[in-house]
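For the sake of clarity, the format in which proteins appear in this thesis is described at this point. The fold follows as a row of integers, each naming the local backbone shape at the matching residue. One such record is shown here in full, so that the layout can be seen directly:
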Amino acid sequence: MDNKFFSDEDPYFQVCDRLDAGEKPEAVYAWAQKQRGKAKDEVLRDEWDEALRYIREENPGLQVS
């Protein structure tokens, strides 16, 4: 992404890229949970929480553990 306002490292955009590429929401959700677990700072964990919430909201009926 060549936009200085947004970062390719932003969890929301990483999730959207994977979903747009056709990955199953369940797989993206599992991946995002692992990424959140690796996050060492609270701000990044909060950003991952927002990305996880986005996946749940956009995919009602999503089976997550």
Q: What stands out?
A: The two ends are 32 Å apart (CA to CA). Residues 20 and 40 are 27 Å apart (CA to CA).
